[in-house]
Amino acid sequence: MASYCMTVTRLRLVLGEGARRLHVSAAFNAKAKVAMSRFEPGTSISYEKLHENIDIVRKRLNRPLTLSEKIVYGHLDDPVGQDIARGRTYLRLRPDRVAMQDATAQMAMLQFISSGLPKVAVPSTIHCDHLIEAQIGGVEDLKRAKDVNQEVYNFLATAGAKYGVGFWKPGSGIIHQILLENYAYPGVLLIGTDSHTPNGGGLGSICIGVGGADAVDVMAGIPWELKCPNVIGVKLTGSLSGWTSPKDVILKVAGILTVKGGTGAIVEYHGPGVDSISCTGMATICNMGAEIGATTSVFPYNHRMKTYLNKTGRADIATLADEHKDDLVPDKGCKYDQVIEINLSELKPHINGPFTPDLAHPVSEIGAVAEKNGWPLEVKVGQYQHQQSHGLIGSCTNSSYEDMGRAASLAKQALDKGLKCKAAFTVTPGSEQIRATIERDGFSKILRDVGGVVLANACGPCIGQWDRKDVKKGEKNTIVTSYNRNFTSRNDANPATHAFVTSPEIVTALAIAGTLKFDPETDYLTAANGEKFKLEPPNGDELPARDFDPGQDTYQHPPAESGSIMVDVSPTSTRLQLLEPFDKWNGKDLEDLQVLIKVKGKCTTDHISAAGPWLKFRGHLDNISNNMLIGAINIENDAVNKIKNRLTGEYGGVPDVARHYKANGLSWVVVGDDNYGEGSSREHAALEPRHLGGRVILVKSFARIHETNLKKQGMLPLTFADPTDYDKIRPDDKISITGLATFAPGKPLKGVVKHGDGSQDIIILNHTFNENQVEWFHAGSALNRMKELQ
Q: Which stretches make up the Aconitase/3-isopropylmalate dehydratase large subunit alpha/beta/alpha domain (predicted)?
């Protein structure tokens, strides 16, 4: 195995990066093992094991399987004995690998260190993409980030080296683009500590976003639990053309299913229309599937994926996938729990927002809708700018070579007519490979010439890492992005910013026009000479005609010998903090929990644990806890971060009141609405309540990842059996949770709601704990339980 990979490596070194395109496997034994990635020659892809498990399960269930089921059930720890029922049973799975971005990797690695294990049990990587703030431009911003975050980067690099984790340095690119280029492949089961990990579904992978504690389980070699997902089928017919892009598929699906319509399900795309979409376009669709609450999304293996694998130096994997294609597509006659059909030939360009990614509008209608609702339309240029507009392309959702090429084709048309963007315009390359290639092929120059600023290969404004200077907080303005998420305040911490998500092509067109009230399919622009003209539909190559330029080498291999490597965490650090175990359950019911806050309306993980400037504290639980629920709306006064301290009678910030309760021995509960915790996978939104004395989160319904994260940290995520019981809770109530002595799967708990006037309400509370998860609660956390079992 090693000599085979070394020979391939020597070929590449001798012949240069162009050797990536060689079909080298023809020169070797056809049965030679194929490595999971070029960085891990000691690993191998086992399609045989996948096939064996699929065969066992298919015979047991006696029915055709969807692609999602093939890959998921193909990774069962016990395919013979596992109870399998969609939407009901918990599966014990063996993922192939783990990926972590730097903001979540800090806590994941701190938890892994706490486990006491010497090395990770599966291939794992850390990707530095979240801590680079967009200020001036790519080179300057990266240099500043390396300086500001030196302590964190050093911790992640040394922890990776010590425990066998690959480390992608700052400037490498966004985790999901790196995974697509190097680690995703048809049939792999990958978990990542970021909610947009499903991006890999564009390469026929099942890639699922999780919290750091889930990643620790897999890195520790423990079977990973997932509630058996339902499968939503999206049948695509027709073909994409003109202004319509892959992004419009998921914008349309989001409008149909809403932000919670995919909860508990994998979205599986199929049908004749699939072949009209590029591999990176399929990745875009899967990436934004996170915004409908889906467990993940996936496309069947096809020639577009094979072409991408060949172009990214993985012809050996493509050949192997061809040999096992029957296991990488759905069975004929398989059944979906729900089916949506979209004719790509009839699909029009869409733009979604503001403030939620499921508010879908055809681009042709957004101008009129915006006028009707009073949303800012125009870019006002000059000394008195009251409604500054921004167009931002890139991010993990839309930063492929094809995306950048299509955007550049529009920018070139504008330049040829003497025009530049009327709106501020930023470009975020998805990876160092994309940056280097679009620089070489002239796209970056065109985008800069039209008025764009090329930012670092990082998340940047998409996650709130944006030092925006042109508007004051509270100033109403519009931004249009090719990102995936547009919650209130997410991009720039300004609640008055109206953020819309759309394709890079539409972002570019609107930035040139300077107004939302522009439909590029029908409307005209005015050239510098006064001539009226229409933009021609965008065009761009799916992949570069020449090979990708890999750019700078930004990967750190874990060394073979790591015993002498030290991982230091200073006790005086404000950025990093070693973890202390949470307390075990005391064996009693939870009596008289004070309602800390009754949350009104949408409460995402951005509301619970804001990103942006708070990202710097992601490795320090006590400091990051100072942002707990500061974005949530208090139903008592419609204010954010202003709640009444029931012990003092004074108003204070949510974290401050929680700390005061904890110091006085008063445990508390949060009451919330529907789809609580939607959005990011950040487990800090679960760690912080636990750290500050919370015991229960009681809501109408949960988003999948957040509910699991709460269980992992020893919290009780509970739902109202009758959602109208939410209305019975008053902001000054105390709630007792009874029945914990017989806490068991499928058995509801009881809530005794004690009102300030002495009256009470008895309510039934549901939960989704299984037997293992009940043990997490008893032990105080999943990590505590892991230590008990060692």
A: 69-514
Residue 684 contacts residue 623 (beta carbons within 8 Å): no
Residue 376: asked if its preceding bond is cis (omega within 30°), the reply is no
229, 68 Cβ separation under 8 angstroms = yes
C-alpha to C-alpha distance for 329 and 248, rounded to whole angstroms: 24
Is 135 in a helix, a strand, or coil? Answer: coil
Continuous segment of H or E residues that includes residue 511: helix 504-513
Q: According to the model, what pLDDT value does residue 557 have?
A: 96
Mind listing the pLDDT tens digit for each residue in 575-613? Answer: 999 999 999 999 999 999 999 999 999 999 999 999 888
Q: From CA 607, how far away is CA 627, in angstroms rounded?
A: 9
As a whole number of angstroms, the distance between CA 748 and CA 737 comes to 11
Residue in 221, 182, 216, 243 with CA at minimum distance from that of residue 112: 216
Provide the pLDDT for residue 379: 40
Determine phi and psi for 398, rounding to 5 degrees.
-145, 70
**CA–CA dist 338, 266 (Å, integer):** 11
Looking at the annotation, which residues are catalytic? 129-130, 194, 485, 680, 682
Predicted pLDDT of residue 281: 98
Lowest mean pLDDT among 4-8, 240-244, 249-253, 537-541: 4-8
Question: Does residue 680 surpass a pLDDT of 90?
Answer: no
**Are 192 and 174 a contacting pair, CB within 8 Å?**
no
352 HSE (CA, 13 A, CB side) = 29
Q: Which residues contact 69 (CB under 8 A, 6 or more apart)?
A: 57, 231, 334
Burial 704-729, CB ≥16 within 10 A → b, else e:
bbbbbbbbbbbbbbbbbeeeebbeeb
Residue 25 has pLDDT above 70, yes or no: no
